[in-house]
Amino acid sequence: MRPTEPWLNASRSFPPAFYVLLVLLRSLACVLLLLGFLALPGEALGQSATVRGFITDDDTGEPMELVAVTLRDGAGETRGAVTTGEGFYIITGVPTGRYAMRASFLGYASYTDTLDVTAGQVYEVNVVLSTEGGELEEVLVESERSTGSARITAGQQIIRPADIERIPTLDAAGDLATLLTSLPGIVSTGDRGGQFFVRGGEPTHNLVQIDGMMLYQPFHILGFYSTFPADIINQTNVYAGGFGSGFGERISSVIDVTTRSGNNRRFTGSGSISPFIAGLQIEGPIIPGQASLLVSVRESLVEDVAAPIINDDLPYVFGDAFGKLSFTPSSNQRLSFTALRTHDRGSLLEDVGSAVEPEELRWRNEAIGGRYLILPREYPVSFRANAAYSRLTSSIGPPEQPSRVTEIQNFNAQIDITFFGPAGAWNAGTSIRLIELESNLGGTFQNLENRSEEPFHWGMYLEPEFEMGDLKIRPGIRAQIFDVQFEPFWEPRLRLVWTRPKSEWSAAAGMYQQAIIGLYDRRDAASVFTAYSSAIRPTDRLDDISEGRVQRAWHGLVGYRANPTSWLEVSAEGYAKLINNLFISEWTAYPRFTTNLQPAEGRSFGFDLRAEVRRPGYYLSATYGYSNTEYQAKQAELQLWYGTETLAFRPPHDRRHQVNLLASTTLAGIDLSARWEFGSGLPFSRVVGFDGFAVIDDIVDPFSLPTERRVIYERPFSGLLPAYHRLDLSGNYTIEMPGAALTVSGSLINVYNRANLFYLDVFTLRRVDQLPFVPSLGVKITV
Q1: How far apart are CA 302 and CA 312, in angstroms?
Q2: pTM for the predicted model, two decimal places
């Protein structure tokens, strides 16, 4: 019998807040004891000091990232650090003495001062940088080039707004979606649907969060847009695999979006409009220098404005609203509150009289959260706390009486602590997530009409960082407890980076486990409706599954990056992924959504090749991705259909080849961009015939029964759809005016009007294509 704890079983009778507090306090005690133990051998700390602080922009009051901070002693020896996205820097192991301190960033006047350091002390030095003057130094060139299409380290790529603005888009303002879909290894459903797959995983295998708030549907129904407009983003970390122990509960990838703080010096704003979307953004100080507000609102115009222009049916309505309050309670604390709401409605299919009638999809994201950072004055430690609530509601069918409705909501609380020691940093943390799943999937063939679940997740991790010369090592261990059993699920992980003067080797490996399962019909490219369920327990149909079986993936990857010259960067990364306990909807001959499950295994391997050229006046990048993904389903009924109980197949997102070419330059004051993308054909299930289907529950005349047509499939996903390719162009021209700037943006999407397939009606073979040639003109004004 598995050991249990009485308080764990009894906690369901207490309010959720009590339960969260109890577990977090217990976890925090363990973390503090652990870090206290690490700090005990502190003789080295007593022989050295720590210098740390925040660096902000004098004009906006916002934190500044990638600022180089150095300490130079009388002998010329230099030690330093680079600021994080929160503007935070820390330099440990500083011996007693006098130092020349310098903070430098491209385009800003350097900060210089003299600092007398005494061993055993923690010095807090906050710096405000002004844009007056500023010189370009070699150290700044290296630090600022932390982004770009070729800069990937152990599966991690950093994205900033400047990277997004290079991609041609339908709007005068950029969106994260346009860049994500250009990365090798990421396969999207195209212009419609808002689903993406990373290196062979499913959409529900991706962890997407903004300021610590989890989003289950981060894209809008029109695939050019996500819930992340470029103007609110500070930094996005995309982990295509091999992510560290600080992230849990997902087995494929992580997209971690951090938004910027609003201007706390003065009020500014911008407004944009195009045939596809209109947006408004306002930011400014609530308490000058201490508190600021950032608000962004967007609403689509597609259905009423864009559709008549391109003479195409685009029944899409979507929008989003974002708000962030940022506070500086004291010199060593940062506090923020974030709220987000999105809405989407539309039909992905055209009403062309096919046997499959268009169904209206609707979904809504709602999220609110808070983050708190404090640097205890007497210790080289950072303490971060995060609490967030998010909810996704989805439905499909008539608005008055949808055929299927699902809702998933969660409350998450997390604490992260970093201890900065002389030999490296020790990261540790704990989190708890309370989840509620509600589904109403009415119908004869769904096997499940109403369902309500309340699973919970608890996790704790430890991840030290060591530097051994040019080698950085980050081993980690994560323990997760899902409510299917009390014993923890252990997840070992490792990340390595070996830096050379003009090159870098990196590698990552680890185990990842997930208890939440997303169910959708893989045969239907036009259906993005997903029902959620928790980890599998024994059932009559799956009695060979042990209690507590969760989805599990092993990641392994190795990469190489080189800078042969100052303007050229190339990289290559190979990866392999094994997925166990993958549960997918069963194969049936009746083309309807079902929550019946069949167990499956999966594997994916491939490689990415990237090259990037940065020269004064122009930018070029080229990427190629190869991926090979295979699932093996296990279902008794497969023996009747295909003569085997184990069926190997390529899932519908197995895109073997991807190519993306991007070029940008400035000509006569106009910023020009061009992007060409190619994707090899995706697998689909061919149809060989039809028969009639009727439900018989009494002695009746079979010739008088009403029947419904049932499809007879060939071996699943044995067909291949046509290849996808498209050319997009854009140009932006900015007019500077007193107190304002006007940007006019023109774009041409799908320039040569390629008929890229989106959906093939298996009943009539009628096709629905992605967007045709689309011209767009947008205007943005900033004050």
Answers
A1: 10
A2: 0.88
